[in-house]
Design brief:
binds protoporphyrin IX containing FE; 0% strand; single chain; 280 residues; mainly alpha
Length: 280
């Protein structure tokens, strides 16, 4: 009887199980990221759009930005608000691009949302580079190098993702688009890494007030470098035929999801809620 019950179709092949584990760990990361991105979008909306809508732009300074609103500096203020307010749209829309259901069932939503995401991402990188090096909104020169490289890489990845979508080479498009997504969210990851690090250490450890301590410098590059390496590991695992390699990448992605979750909880309670409370 037992041998009848266990047929080849009921036995889950170990390789299939490894593939399932990879799928689950990547999906878990996307679900966690979606929640964290929408928290960030709400924070940006309340902190930056609310003061503008109520005609009290200087309220943003209650949250202690680097330069923030400067009375009389019309161009600088315009650049600041045109840099930060679209970030709310980027954080609401970007993660939707990763959901297969939207790509398959609503391709027009994927296309238009993708155009919006890449356009705002490109503009965000350009205005960010201006704020840092043109307006002088930086805490230290060396501490700004990581985000500067981030901005330059956004320009490269967004243009490449767009190019391959137009050329209908969707596998290459997807790879560049994932990297564009991770790079455009480098500033989000940076806050997660930093707040998560503070939470785990119960305070700063290797950080400085001007964000140029050894850990700050590490996070300023790792905030996009590590997510991009994990994404490449997932692409690599999908081409593998040996179960243990796929398991190894599943474990790495699950660890990434856990660190993302810790970072989100820390950023929500240690950064975003306290800053919103200062403005409201
Ligand atoms: C496209 C991706 C980017 C997004 C979505 C983004 C989003 C944001 C957000 C939401 C803030 C406000 C931060 C807060 O209140 O915690 C901010 C501030 C800032 N960003 Fe970006 N950013 C991006 C890229 C960059 C780049 C590449 C640079 C520099 C090279 C940059 C430079 C700045 C600066 C200097 C500020 C602070 C302005 C101030 O406080 O006066 N950003 N960014």
């Amino acid at each position: 009887m037992l041998s009848e019950a266990i047929t080849p179709t009921t036995i889950v092949n170990p390789f299939q199980r490894a593939k399932q584990a990879l799928h689950i760990s990547v999906s878990a990361w996307v679900a966690i990221a979606l929640i964290g991105q929408w928290f960030f979008a709400s924070y940006v909306f309340v902190l930056y759009a609310f003061p503008i809508a109520t005609g009290n732009a200087e309220l943003v300074n209650l949250a202690r930005p680097i330069m923030g609103y400067v009375a009389g500096d019309t161009f600088g203020n315009l650049m600041l608000f045109s840099h930060v307010i679209p970030a709310a749209l980027l954080s609401v829309g970007g993660v939707l691009q990763l959901l297969p259901v939207i790509r398959k069932k609503y391709p027009a939503v994927h296309r238009w949302n993708g155009r919006m995401f890449l356009t705002l991402g490109l503009l965000g990188a350009i205005s960010g580079l201006y704020l840092t090096w043109g307006r002088g909104a930086r805490l230290s020169d060396v501490g700004s190098l990581g985000i500067t490289l981030n901005g330059v890489l956004i320009l490269v990845a967004a243009v490449m993702a767009w190019r391959y979508a137009r050329a209908k080479q969707f596998n290459i498009h997807m790879r560049w688009a994932i990297h564009a997504f991770l790079l455009i969210n480098g500033v989000w990851f940076f806050r997660l890494f930093l707040m998560g690090w503070y939470a785990v250490n119960q305070g700063s450890n290797g950080n400085s007030a001007t964000l140029d301590g050894p850990m700050d410098l590490f996070f300023s590059f790792a905030c996009y470098g590590i997510p991009m390496l994990i994404a490449e590991a997932v692409f690599w695992a999908k081409r593998q035929q040996l179960a243990f390699r796929v398991w190894a990448v599943s474990a790495l992605t699950a660890l990434g999801a856990l660190i993302t979750l810790i970072g989100i909880v820390a950023a929500v309670f240690m950064m975003w809620i306290p800053r919103i409370s200062a403005v409201l």
